[in-house]
């Protein structure tokens, strides 16, 4: 799981609250992390693999929003691999890990592994948080017709730049002036926790606001496309709203335990003696949420793919074909029709129509298509009702 306590555990003079949770059934905890991360990793990859028996759609190229969804999944996969590797070493080499607690020890490899693995996990999940924020921003810009594939470069610069900067800054402040003297006071720990939880809190606060504005803008687009707001448009808007709701629901489920656990541990740190009897319930709650974090944090990758694409099925097609990759969506009307297997079924029977699409309706349909990408029923309704897709 991803917690700043992983970095503070690398300090030989770690605080009592960190020692409490890290000493609580370490073998069981590492086993839980390995099991949850392995299941999530396998199911996430299964979700993204092409499936048999699904008719592909020919599309020009990926949209910025669909690329962001892929990058979020990649961050979750790499973060899960870091959890599996770290927990496996802890279980397989207990003597190696025990050397972390040795003050002024000559063997630097245990501390190097502790710091490196913790930074890897924090960096990948922090980048995932920033990408999720970029997805909310991009969704809003798409319906405002101010986004495109060119903006993905700016998202890369912001996401990786901020993730690396905050991670390095937090670690540097925590371990200053040396690893053996870190955690001597809250002036070392607090900046580290702030840099770790800042992107998480940003997603919790900003994304619902951006999603809400996007849904309102989508409703205006649908009403203005043909001058009327039919039942199909209403259902499509509801499904886009539901997709945003699922994304935030998964995020809250996977990370609310971290906030609760950190609040409890900080409260315990403020106490003269955390082993006092009046604090028993708080210690118990902190240990329970600690185990819950080990289960839910790694599961974010798989749960996000369910929110993004729905369940794509078990029938994997490993044969290479020129079809649409799972995260591609209908983003533009230019040429270049390389495609890979899509994760959902799309009906190809299009009603004949002599309607001529205008540039405004074309841009509107492209924006709606990007936001509802991965949703079978939404894409089918859009295909039937929109003149831009006539003749595909």
From TrEMBL:
Keywords: Cell membrane, G-protein coupled receptor, Glycoprotein, Lysosome, Membrane, Receptor, Transducer, Transmembrane, Transmembrane helix. The gene is Gpr143. Residues 358-377 have a biased composition (Polar residues). The keyword ATP-binding does not apply. InterPro entries: GPR143 (IPR001414). This is G-protein coupled receptor 143. One of its GO terms (biological process) is regulation of calcium-mediated signaling. The chain crosses the membrane at residues 24-46, 67-85, 119-141, 153-178, 190-211, 244-267, 287-311. It comes from Sylvia borin (Garden warbler).
């Amino acid at each position: 799981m991803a917690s700043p306590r992983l970095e503070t555990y690398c300090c030989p003079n770690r605080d009592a609250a960190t020692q409490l949770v890290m000493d609580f059934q370490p073998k069981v905890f590492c086993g839980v992390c390995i099991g949850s991360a392995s299941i999530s990793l396998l199911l996430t990859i299964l979700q993204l693999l092409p499936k048999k028996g699904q008719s592909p759609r020919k599309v020009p190229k990926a949209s910025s929003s669909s690329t962001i969804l892929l990058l979020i999944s990649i961050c979750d996969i790499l973060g899960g691999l870091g959890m599996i590797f770290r927990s496996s070493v802890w279980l397989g080499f207990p003597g190696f890990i025990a050397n972390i607690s040795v003050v002024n020890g000559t063997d630097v490899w245990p501390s190097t592994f502790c710091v490196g693995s913790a930074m890897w996990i924090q960096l990948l999940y922090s980048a995932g948080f920033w990408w999720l924020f970029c997805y909310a921003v991009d969704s809003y810009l798409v319906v405002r017709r101010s986004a495109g594939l060119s903006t993905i470069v700016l998202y890369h610069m912001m996401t990786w730049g901020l993730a690396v900067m905050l991670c390095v800054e937090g670690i540097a402040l925590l371990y200053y002036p040396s690893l053996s003297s870190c955690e001597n006071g809250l002036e070392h720990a607090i900046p580290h926790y702030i840099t770790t939880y800042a992107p998480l809190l940003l997603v919790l606060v900003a994304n619902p606001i951006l999603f809400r504005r996007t849904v309102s803008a989508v409703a205006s687009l649908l009403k203005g496309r043909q001058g009327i707001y039919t039942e199909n448009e209403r259902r499509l808007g509801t499904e886009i709203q539901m997709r945003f709701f699922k994304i935030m629901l998964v995020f809250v489920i996977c990370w609310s335990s971290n906030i609760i656990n950190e609040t409890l541990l900080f409260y315990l740190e403020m106490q003269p003696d955390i082993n006092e009897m009046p604090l028993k319930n708080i210690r118990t709650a902190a240990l329970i949420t600690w185990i819950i974090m080990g289960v839910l944090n790694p599961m974010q990758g798989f749960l996000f793919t369910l929110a993004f694409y729905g369940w794509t099925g078990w029938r994997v097609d490993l044969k290479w074909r020129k079809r649409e990759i799972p995260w591609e969506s209908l983003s533009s009307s230019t040429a270049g029709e390389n495609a890979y297997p899509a994760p959902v079924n799309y009906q190809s029977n299009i009603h004949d129509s002599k309607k001529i699409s205008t540039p405004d309706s074309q841009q509107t349909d492209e924006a709606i298509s990007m936001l509802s990408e991965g949703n079978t029923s939404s894409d089918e309704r859009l295909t039937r009702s929109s003149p831009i897709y006539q003749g595909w």
